[in-house]
């Protein structure tokens, strides 16, 4: 009897999108869009990672001039940026791939001198800065302390929602198949959701209802502009990156999910702390690995639509997650940096290139970006020896 259980390599229908497999390119900041404009290097990078009917998510993309906190990240709020993205999207579509743009506002994870227009303080839910445990990467490759942010006034929040709405319209104009709202990893929307950061006394602070409100308003505005079936959301209730601690991540995740369930979005994407081989996390742990795995299962069961998981997935863990029904799709980050043909390698169970952390955030258009060899290139080289 044929085994019709899904595998990491079986097709999947995500709303209107027919995917040929379940391996997703996770959103990853790569700092190669010089001055915020996607260029030929990005075209090469994304097309290298495209498979026919495979699903890609772009790096975090600035929705407005106040939203940057890394050097040379792309934006989607002006004409030049839209034109730059069009070339990337065309390249991906020509090879039959599907691509969503990740919409990003870093909030307080910025720096007034180098990333904010007019030297203004970065915005947040709070006036508390990110602690000295974390450092911000400056354009000259040095690291600095995070500055004191300015809490958004209640009446300013609709303006930021409007920035998301305009960005999503631009994304569709650039040809993207949809967008992912970045509600994870201690950036602006997470700064409102987590009770370890949000100390507001207005309608955006206090109860879970109030802390989820900003994210919900953004998602609703974006869905109204382009259709809910073109919108995904990324959250990380159990990740404390940039001090984004919550006293009850389980309830926070469930509160967000309960609300998103009503909107029939394209997908929910949940990241968990990224375990290395030694049980350490890169972004700070939040409970044990078993606890996090339990939480992921709880959220997966609670969410009614497509569930994407991310964070420390190897081939084995990805295969297992889909086979056990713990996720519909698995997003791969670092392994996709160093293996442009990751999907093929995972299918063949072929050896993987190791990633070089030192070039994750450098700005060279090729080195550490598009020069990781494909299997094809490696065999060609070996056959010449
Ligand atoms: C270099 C780098 C940049 C990243 N940038 C982003 C980003 O822009 N947006 C985001 O949501 N996550 C970002 N992440 C997190 C990844 O999407 C992913 O969740 C994480 O790397 C864990 O998956 P992995 O273990 O497969 O690498 C980044 C990770 C890395 C390594």
Automatic annotation (TrEMBL):
Please report the stretch or stretches of sequence annotated as the NADH:flavin oxidoreductase/NADH oxidase N-terminal domain.
Answer: 8-352
Q: Which Pfam families does the UniProt entry name for this protein?
A: Oxidored_FMN (PF00724)
Q: Which cofactor does it need?
A: FMN
Q: What is its EC number?
A: 1.3.1.-
> Does the keyword Oxidoreductase feature in the UniProt annotation?
yes
MF term (GO), any:
FMN binding
InterPro entries, per the entry: Aldolase_TIM (IPR013785), OxRdtase_FMN_N (IPR001155), Oye-like (IPR045247)
Per its UniProt entry, which superkingdom is the organism in? Eukaryota
This protein's GO cellular component annotations are: peroxisome
Q: Which UniProt keywords apply?
A: Flavoprotein, FMN, NADP, Oxidoreductase
- Where is the signal peptide, in residue numbers? none
For this entry, list what GO says about its biological process.
Answer: jasmonic acid biosynthetic process; oxylipin biosynthetic process
Name the family: Belongs to the NADH:flavin oxidoreductase/NADH oxidase family.
Write the protein's name.
Answer: Oxidoreductase
Q: Which organism was this protein described from?
A: Helianthus annuus (Common sunflower)
